[in-house]
Specification:
The protein has helices at 9-17, 25-38, 47-61, 79-84, 86-89, 95-101, 110-117, 125-135, 138-157, 171-179, 192-201, 240-252, 272-278, 288-297, 322-326, and strands at 62-65, 68-71, 161-165, 184-189, 209-213, 226-231, 254-265, 300-307, 313-320. It is α/β, with parallel strands linked by helices and 327 residues long. Bound molecules: S-adenosylmethionine.
Length: 327
């Protein structure tokens, strides 16, 4: 990898092929990015520059529509770099390679989330600096922060029974399971491999923890028995129509006085260009008002919006509204 000499050809070729692209600064950014690949990844002193550069590229390529990034030009500015350095970008041993390749068929799978929790850094020299950079991203810290947030909430509220929807490998809820000995937990995910991994991560708690492999969108939650329904890392993939349909079904799964606690990435979060340009990991980002709207439309009352210290995680907490249910 380090034997390849930067000849600036990626930026040059793009410039030749897209002479109508007005902002020539973009080519310099791509050239710098190539140089960073060739020197073996970013040093800490490069981090700010990379984030700013990716932000500029992202702004040039995308606009936002209903919280989702939509192409505004017909060129993928990163494509030539990804083609030239295939081995670098498409390699599951790096965090960004795993994110980009999506070996389990979807973004945000249990494996990438586990590696985030484990602060995993590749053994391969050319990925070490990139993986260290990855783990400093606010979005990545936000994923890790979820486990403390739900731990604290459950410790304070002492719910009798908790349902985690889109549980992945269960690492977000694991500390809470350890800590809350009087609470039962049900973990639901549609990915069989994620459920398998969650069972492994939570073995030894069979008396209080159970698992369901099911598509949450199609599932019915009519038993009215959960005191708390937690879902982090799932609603960011659902448009408003699906989100409201799911929240409405979850409403039926809550006991009287029960609450939902729903996470979503916030609009304006700083890691978005890195996630979307390098990892092709696209999410529906929402504002606190968007979150409130979803819960309101789905029949919840006493809605409250929270966030974590990164500001990337937004959470909407809402209580089951019995009036709404009977109407
Ligand atoms: C980003 S992970 C979040 C995992 C965990 N909750 C966390 O915050 O670390 C999202 C999970 O939602 C699951 N998922 C996506 N769509 C789903 C659906 N329709 N029904 C159930 N689970 C779903 C995925 O399989 C994945 O494990």
């Amino acid at each position: 990898m380090n034997a390849i000499i930067s000849d600036g050809s990626v930026a040059l070729k793009l410039r030749e092929n897209h002479q109508n692209l007005k902002n020539s600064e973009l080519f310099n950014i791509l050239d710098d990015f190539e140089k960073t690949i060739l020197k073996g990844g970013p040093d800490i002193s490069d981090y700010r520059n990379i984030l700013t550069s990716l932000d500029q590229l992202h702004n040039a390529m995308y606009r936002e529509e209903n919280g989702l990034s939509v192409k505004k030009i017909d060129i993928d500015l990163l494509r030539p770099l990804k083609s030239k350095y295939r081995e670098f970008f498409y390699n599951v041993s790096s965090m960004q390679g795993l994110s980009l390749l999506k070996p389990h068929g979807y973004a945000g799978d249990f494996e990438v989330i586990e590696r985030i929790h484990g602060h995993n850094v590749s053994q391969r020299e050319e990925f070490i600096k990139w993986d260290k950079f990855f783990h400093t991203a606010d979005a990545v810290k936000a994923v890790r922060n979820r486990s403390q947030i739900i731990l604290d909430y459950i410790a304070a509220e002492n719910p009798k029974s908790v349902l985690s929807v889109g549980c992945g490998s269960g690492l977000d809820i694991r500390k809470a399971v350890y800590n809350s000995t009087a609470t039962t937990f049900t973990l639901l995910d549609n990915d069989a491999k994620a459920i398998e991994r969650a069972k492994k991560n939570l073995q030894g708690f069979d008396d209080r923890v159970s698992f369901i492999q099911r598509n949450a969108i199609r599932a019915k939650f009519d038993d009215k028995d959960f005191s708390l329904i937690w879902s982090a890392g799932l609603f960011d993939y659902l448009n408003d129509r699906l989100a409201i349909a799911l929240l409405t079904r979850l409403h039926a799964g809550l006991a009287d006085g029960g609450k939902v606690f729903i996470g979503n990435f916030a609009k304006g979060q700083i890691s978005r260009p890195y996630m979307e340009l390098i990892g092709e990991w696209f999410l529906i980002h929402r504002t606190p008002e968007d979150m409130k709207h979803l819960l309101k439309e789905s029949g919840y009352k006493n809605i409250e919006i929270r966030s974590d210290e990164t500001g990337v995680n937004l959470f909407a907490v809402g209580e089951k509204d019995l009036n709404r249910e009977s109407s």
